[in-house]
Amino acid sequence: MNIRELRKILETNSEENIAFDEPHVSLRCEENNITKEQVLYILLHETSTLTNFIEDRPNVYKLYFKLSKKRQLKLIIDLLKPKNI
Question: Cys staple from 73: which of 5, 29, 50, 65, with CB 3.0 to 4.6 Å?
């Protein structure tokens, strides 16, 4: 998979298709001063800031979004479930 294909997958999903791994996500958001709503927005609407990704395991990817010159947001997505992120 290339970055263009991954962006297309993200852009064709909606908030209803995303499940968070709780309480891990809430804790990480709190530590990094970001809300889950901001994470959702970046994941679904700011795919142009996706700078890199790594396939961690089959259908599991680490995504890196540029937030600023010195900050990146790392998200781990699991594409094993059809129509879900």
Answer: 65
How would you write the pLDDT of the chain (85 residues) with one tens digit per residue?
A: 898 999 998 988 889 989 888 888 999 999 989 999 999 999 999 999 999 999 999 999 999 999 999 999 999 999 887 767 7
Helix (H) or strand (E) holding 56: strand 50-57
Distance of CA 18 to the CA centre of its chain: 10
Q: Which two tokens mark 2?
A: 């290339």
80: its two tokens: 């094993």
DSSP letter for each residue of 19-45 = ---TTHHHHHHHHTT--HHHHHHHHHH
